[in-house]
Amino acid sequence: MTLPEPDAEFLAHRGLSHTIAMDGPMTCVLLQDWILPQGLNVATADLLIRLQPGYPDLPPDMWWFAPALTLANGGVIQATEVTESHLGRTWQRWSRHFNPGQWRSGIDGLESYVALINRELVRCAASAA
């Protein structure tokens, strides 16, 4: 599967190292060595975004990291306790969901979703301080 053009342009423009693979009906975007904010247990991790059929009209749901992330102080990050296997690897699932109407079909895409992920990472990392 190819990504919608705005998503492909976003990845290319940002120079993000990534691979795209299918996992059943899901299109997986694997962003390698994602830089994480201070306050987490590692400086980088691989970020997996799984796009359901119907994307970009339907929003992504949750995201995954490998290796698993904790707070730098060893604390557990809320709603990240589940691990799942995708693409032959074990991933930590970040259970985060949109409220109805929060995803704007035709407007939102990978760029806005990655921004949301980064905001959540910063919020979680700050809780370790």
TrEMBL record:
Which Pfam families does this entry report, sorted A to Z?
Prok-E2_E
What is this protein identified as?
E2 family protein E
Q: Which organism is it from?
A: Jatrophihabitans cynanchi
